[in-house]
Amino acid sequence: MHHSNKHTIFELFKNQKMMEDTSTIDIKSINEKIEKESAFVDLLTLEMNKVIVGQKHMVERLLIGLLGQGHILLEGVPGLAKTLAINTLSQAVDGSFSRIQFTPDLLPADVTGTLIYNMKQNDFSIKKGPIFANFVLADEINRAPAKVQSALLEAMQEKQVTIGDDTFKLDKPFLVMATQNPVEQEGTYPLPEAQVDRFMLKTVIDYPKIEEEQLIVRANLKGAFEKVNPVVSLQQILNAQKAVREVYMDEKIEKYILDIIFATRYPEKYKLADLKPLISFGASPRGSINLATAAKCYAFIKRRGYVIPEDVRAVVYDVLRHRIGITYEAEAENVTSVDIINKIVNEIEVP
């Protein structure tokens, strides 16, 4: 084994116990490229921090969704700056923003758009709905009936919308952040499992820490929020979405991801037989794809050109918490999908 060409990769993976033939992949150059491509992440974060206090986790997840071309389901009580966060992101990225407040009387056309009859021209013109924006906040998605939910989800999945006989491509980049209230209120329509699976991440946000909230109160009472400037162009984001795919993922990491996913389906094969009665269904192949994508995005945000196990562990909860069905037995024992992920992540050997 030659020393020279192994030298750089050995430095990168010293603590990763990962060695392989570098003739096919030059980690060093990928790493340099990603470091250059991801330079805007710091700018973007700084810009958002002008307005958003704390909520580092939420901001990071928004970036992962944006770079991974996924969408985010956000759960948290009202007043935790969800609207503010995605609005700020759209200003910092120089993109368009729209907010759709989901209510029980909303119609699919209120999301996608409608044909309007024009008497003068004796013709129909098209009025595009609020879905045509780069950043769409779908607020309280569980308050609208299934038809409206599926209109939104179809647009998210297909990246296009049909109005009348015409099909329109949605703007790129396109990020939907849907929020739902955790409290089971009257008159909510929970998203069906198959629909929830379409969200790359489900992030649960909590109240700010007391010293953060002190800053929030001060800033609000002063009424002096700094202006958010567009520091990143939409083109830069589109380039970054391409670059993220080039982040190197070793086969050992792929295997690690698959082990985690398969443990949600066949826990007994991973010395986790006690989880079997608690899981009604495991993660689908979308879970594997999204876990791999999110791990690459996380590495990118950390300005690294290769994925380490820590990246997978950092995103695993948000990628899987909505993809594992729990049984009545689990509910009776107060076991959540997060507890299940915890057990799996602690059991499965880290490469």
UniProtKB/TrEMBL annotation:
InterPro entries registered for this protein in UniProt: ATPase_AAA-3, CbbQ/NirQ/NorQ/GpvN, ChlI/MoxR_AAA_lid, P-loop_NTPase
Record-annotated ATPase AAA-3 domain positions: 71-201
Domain ChlI/MoxR AAA lid: 277-344
Cited Pfam families: AAA_3, AAA_lid_2
Protein name stated in the entry: MoxR-like ATPase
Source organism of this protein record: Meridianimaribacter flavus
